[in-house]
Design a protein that fits this description.
141 residues, Immunoglobulin-like, 8 strands, five-stranded mixed beta sheet, rod-shaped, alpha+beta, transmembrane helix, membrane, transmembrane, 52% strand
């Protein structure tokens, strides 16, 4: 997303992850102004993008001077919870005071793994019943 002074070039994160898995993310921010400026790039992994991020949802923050036309990468990781997560990148710039410039988001979906144990158990039981019934019928003749 393009702001007045910066552009979030990309957010690199997997499209999905399993609960409890460590998820790496990174973002690349470019200074599109004609001046070297101080930027603060913040990374969050949030459940609801419409709520203020909690400290637990903060992945990282970096204050860095980026030259005109130059870019900076910031990275971090989080542990995938039991729900989909929105990666939120916020960029602020400093000229006399901190001012919001732009943001971008990317969703990491929860992968729900199937526990095959009950299904395999049921197939084995049904298979045994299918074998035993003809044997039992033959035994009562």
């Amino acid at each position: 997303m393009i702001g007045t002074y910066s552009e979030i070039i990309e957010i690199i994160a997997p499209s999905s992850a399993k609960e409890g898995e460590q998820v790496p993310i990174s973002t690349k921010v470019m200074n599109i102004s004609a001046y070297s400026l101080l930027f603060r790039v913040e990374l969050y992994a949030v459940k609801d993008i419409y709520e203020v991020p909690t400290p637990e949802e903060t992945i990282g923050s970096l204050e860095v001077t980026i030259g005109s036309g130059q870019s900076q990468v910031i990275s971090g990781t989080f542990i995938m919870p039991a729900w989909d997560v929105s990666i939120v990148v916020k960029v602020h710039r400093f000229i006399d005071h901190w001012d919001f410039d732009t943001y971008s988001t990317k969703v990491v979906s929860l992968v729900v793994t199937q526990d095959w144990t009950p299904i395999i158990g049921m197939v084995l039981v049904l298979g045994m019943v299918a074998v035993l019934i003809p044997m039992m019928k033959g035994g009562f003749k």
